[in-house]
Sequence to fold (727 residues):
Amino acid sequence: MIRFEDVIVQIGDFQLTVNMTVPKGFTTVIGQSGAGKSTLLSLLSGHRELTSGKIFVDGTRVDLLPPFQRPCSTIFQEFNLFPHLTISQNLNLVCGKSFFVSDISREKIKRVLEKVGIVELIDRLPSEISGGQQSRAALARVLLQDNPILLLDEPFSALGPNQKSELIELVYSLSKEQGITVLLITHDPKDAKQVGGQCIVVKDKKALGPFETSEALKKNGLLKGYL
Amino acid sequence: MARSTVTVISSVFLVGLLLGPLISLIHFSGLSVSLNSSDIAAIKFTCVQAAYSATLSTLIAIPVAKALKRQKFFGKQFVVLILGAPFILPVIVAVLGLILVFGNNGVVNNILNLIGFAPVKIYGFWGVILAHIFFNLPLAIRILLQALNNVPGEHYRLISSLKLSFVQKFFALDWPVLKKVCPGIWAVIFAICLSSFSVALTLGGGPKATTVELAIYQSFFYDLDFSKAAQLALVQVFLVVSVVLCSQFINTPKTVLGLDIKIANYKPSFFEKIIDALVIIGILLFIFTPLIMILFYGFANIFSLPLSVFKAASLSIQIAILSSFMSVFFGLCLTTKMGEIFGSLGIAISPIVMGAGTFLMLKNFGNPYLLAVPVTVVVNALVSLPFVIRILKPSALEIRKEFDNLSHSIGLTGIYWVWWVYLRRLKRPIGFSLGVAAALSMGDLGVIVLFGSGEITTLPLKIYQLMGSYRVEEALASALLLSLLAFGSFAFFDKLGRTL
Fold:
């Protein structure tokens, strides 16, 4: 469970207020461009500092921790893989501190790549595989990190609708299987509709919710103007 | 360890390396500077030659850059690229080449003699100016060309559609760029020429053509007047620091190491084509005739050089490798804004000043000559450091911008970040900067003249000694060997960075 307690972030003229509890499971974050969706996630991941307030994960305060000590893994919009490293080297970075890919790590990497369906691409560079396959590799890395929270900052926005839907489905099933809490940013209500569950709406300088997605998407729901 | 901590530690270490010699100079100067008439003449000559060199280089660069901008021809990019060659060409080689062209028995004087004109003199004031133009003109051309390339193509289209005179075109198109860029180019070249040592050592000298740097060397080497050397070194630091401070009020252009040439949609007139062709041919002849002459005269004797030359070459290679790696190591630690400021401090304290200070500092503890090699390595590394930082910094900043979020989110920090991300992403600029630093060190004739002895001689010093003993053929062959080593080391490291 994630709790944002009187969180305020001020960046120049922009301000965002968050006061909510996000339950375990799959939650989508919806809002207009520039509303503060990415800011909300970066507060949790530690890539942006709070102006005031506190963040708790399962009762433990996390907002004072550096990003890599927080129980979150993030897939960003871009730059999710180091382009000069092969997929196995990219994934090895979260298998403990080492200068080379050990046999044990390679086996571990293979197993997780099998889960996301790209084990045959283990020795390819990111530039040698498609955008969808890159997203799967990033997802594999997140699974290796084994964190209880997964933050997805519109990572599939550059993909076609079918690929995007396929990947959201994959994330959904993997998160269920491994008991991961997922926060997925999207500006497309269809994505929220696809997985159902909870949704957070970011508008008017506030993060509101979480709401039942089906409720928010109703004709007179919170997302009325947005749909 | 946090990256900022690495920068701070490196900066402190660097400041220590620079401050040590400076404090030692202040101590030896007895905290007073008393200048005699020859010292004042040296200061005057230093400033006047720097002003002439900067003015002439800037003025000559204007028509060349304009010609390169408006003409399209096969090999244009190659011409612009090889204009960078004098930057890594050892000074002593260039001087020998210029002597072959403009010396008493040089090509130019032979032609002038044939047509009944008085010969030109390579030694003295004009010789120093000529050599400085040789080194700095390509730099001025490249900076100006970059500025001219930034003029939108639409301006050229508009101008070509109007019937403007030559003068009108100049004021409409070129003048706004020139008045913005030229003062900066002038200031950069003035500052470079202010620290001229090798050129003054080989082509200058005597009461009428001695720079402050040369006067420091003479006090040190011939008069053994360390107090005077220390006083002059402080004067030199004061001169350079004053110019650097004054240049802060001028829009100093960035050094251009690579060029992105955009050809504008502009059709030059027939008259412009003729003028431009003459200008481009003229500049290529000026820059490359000395090099071709070295190749031509040096090749005949390169295989019969004495063993001492190869021993000197071997020492030069060792120093170049060590100093380039040291410079790049520091450079990698200083790729931040603060790091760049500290890394550039070496510009204010020239190799001769640094060498003199270090010599005096070490004199208190033992025989400084025994430390000739390590001191040369360190000083050469510090001299090339500003260039190395300038090469590495843009790519390093890009890495941070693109991959810091990812690195932080997966906990990739410290030495592991350096291994997996920093070194691998930077391998091309690292190779390039290693090449530049190695080539600069290979050709250095600065600090080694203070510390060098019969046994410890680098190849540039050996060539200088051969010139001094009138063994011209051996000097020319050694110069060719030095050029091959300088360009070879540059090409080797650059290629290594591209292929690894």
Notes: The interface with chain B takes residues 45-47, 66-69, 72-74, 76, 79-80, 82, 84-85, 89, 93-94, 97-99, 141, 145 of chain A (CB under 8 Å). Chain A is about 30% helix and 25% strand.
